[in-house]
């Protein structure tokens, strides 16, 4: 069925649309699928579902392009990509950055789709073991590893992280329904949108900073330095992060409360820790693009695991896909593999084909994309400002949202001016609410008994790993020589 | 099934849009939720049945629909082509969020659909009946953890009402709010919580697959698709039905309001809407005009009382 030319056409339309909406900030895959649902009304169900899945994969994939080239993440799962990717792009290595993102997404999509086909029933059993206390342990692990991965000054990094955690408090408290720090503004009841904050801090803050330095700014953007393609060294440094990113992203994506962001953050932290030259991180390390991009696409396939096996939609896009299934009278869930095996296997086969198409479609585009960087600076940054603003309005048409974009943009400018790292703010905003609500859920279920946090082997194991991640580097530093000790001293100030 | 779809598609092609109105429907939620799918279902059927020439859906998510409602009330005023979807959860959210804008600031048109709330446990749970569950709550309310949707929503209210009806202090219930149905379902299936509460449609596929058991439904009568008893039958005086409605802009003339109501009337009586309700598992609880206004006032009053009882509104 999957080789039917019409099906291939649907897959092609899906991935093309998906890449386009991924590139445009503000229009996500969820909205695109929702818009297309009525259009696909009279179409064959298999074809339309395959198109939707293509949009989903394509969206995950297209988001990296604007992250790398314009420092403007189109969706929250590609925020981490901007960290190293944009640094690479400014150093004239935009081509290899885009290529490692594209090939990494392909490799991850391929492996994860195969895992979806053969391991879904087993993975989903593991995912169900994860309750609030296990998720909380996972968040602790993410906090410990990720905050160690950012910045050279611990005090500045932690300050940024706490700004993020503070912003995370804004909005309705999930567990009690009470408003916090919203000051009666209805738009603030829902808290600070992660993509608004990221776009403001990364893109607006930077545009202001560049403008502040004048046109003669210090860091000149070189469009292309060396090859547009990946060198042998790039390949050697990329393949392991691709595989590790897949191994991290897929299972976390499959967890009902996992999501794509955690996987990308953990992958980034892992790559920094394992890299041969960790000092390159923050200045354009290709591993920091390869790993998170693979994790991001693997988690997209992971999300399909609970959707197909349990009928649980764990992301907005998955919820729309579920609606799409229901529109055709199909009920995803434990029985889908039994009642419609042809459709499930057709979907999986088409995902593989969509994945190949994405690569074929996107690799030749890289040469075109990097030309964007040759646009003169004032025009480029004016374009970025327009793009970022339009994206924010597109996502949530409200003046308050725009005001937030500007205020956080100014904050990003100030943070750059005084040398505070920006990424930890976003990390705090992503992880803070998750950690808080999972901890409170766990304690509510156990009626306030804190030992519940270590009462299962899984949660205890993850917390132990987090403790190790915190303590081991300290011991290593204590044993190290003067140079390392001086860094430790600097960290303790 | 396939024929109705084809028929609807054909109807869409053949419809003469010359005298039809255009509509913009606001779904005050993200794509994928109940309001969003209500708005998109309306869009689908209104276009397919030729009730409207073109229909657009706009998502304005946030704060139980109150963000969208506030925006709608201020920007749509006097425009008969704009509609907003809402329901039970919005009534609760207006109260808990102390929203400055309420349903009195728009023109409620009709109640469209209804769905029972179901109380369910995983198949491996030792609890077999709703009475066993309530007995466990009576022994120690905190020991029974409930997984459900957002705090103050219809799930939470139903638990509060059940506790009250069983003579348990509603402020003592251990309600664990989850965002999104998927996460709550996973917590129930994984035995992370004692019991789950959600729209019956979310549980039915799991029941069919033998992974979950519905203990009771919240409506006055049994719900199609499950033979679980109602709470009334089990001896608890609780009757809750989640409902969704549509409202028009504020400041409409009586003629404009009548025209919108006539279009909604056509929508609800169309074959396309009926087959769609069946697919979605929604009940047709259509109520419009003065009857709906009366019912809405009753609902708002009852919800305020419950939210006070369970300590969410002071």
From TrEMBL, chain B:
A Pfam family reported for this protein in Swiss-Prot or TrEMBL: TctC
Keywords: Signal
Superkingdom per UniProt: Bacteria
Signal peptide boundaries: 1-20
Similarity field: Belongs to the UPF0065 (bug) family.
The protein, known as: Tripartite tricarboxylate transporter substrate binding protein
